[in-house]
Amino acid sequence: MKKRRHEKIKEIIVDHVVETQEDLLRYLKEAGYEVTQATVSRDMKELRLVKGLDSRENYRYMSPKSELPKMNMNFSHIFLGAVIHVDHAMNNVVIKCHSGMANAACAALDNMNLSSIVGTLAGDDTILVITRTEQQAQNLSKELAEMLHDR
To answer: What's the CATH code, domain 2-70?
Structure first.
């Protein structure tokens, strides 16, 4: 049952603008799934759904890996909408975002599959990017800051 529900959730977030957990709960109930808000919350966490800006400028829940390309979203669009400031120290890049937007920007960054990035960690408004070398951190920071400057 859980697997089918997860598949239905993936379908719903592609077909509908789901802005809140309550929206998702309503769509699931309309599809015949009797679930609680707590179950929906757990499902969203397990599916690693993130809230991001879609191509129509709506904030909505989405799957970071599979639905981003389907919705014609690209890294620069998400990044420019979410990020405030970029800096680096040693082999780390710190990206400050608008509140609640770090997960979406981080998911977009992860989808870039940049070889210099060892890993990323997103909080509510901050992303930590760990690179292999100090030079790579400096180069990445400069590239991302230039994107911000040109917006």
So the answer is: 1.10.10.10
Phi first, then psi, for residue 74 (nearest 5°) are: -125, 165
d(CA 107, CA 33): 28
Is the model's pLDDT at 111 over the cut of 80? no
- Count how many Cα atoms sit within 13 Å of the Cα of residue 90 in the half-sphere of its side chain: 3
pLDDT > 70 fraction of the chain, expressed in percent and rounded: 85
119 strand-pairing partners = 130
CATH architecture designation of domain 75-149: 2-Layer Sandwich (3.30)
Residues with Cβ within 8 Å of 25's Cβ and at least 6 positions away in sequence, in order, are 35, 37, 40
Cα separation, 38 vs 117, whole angstroms: 35
| pTM of the shown model | 0.52
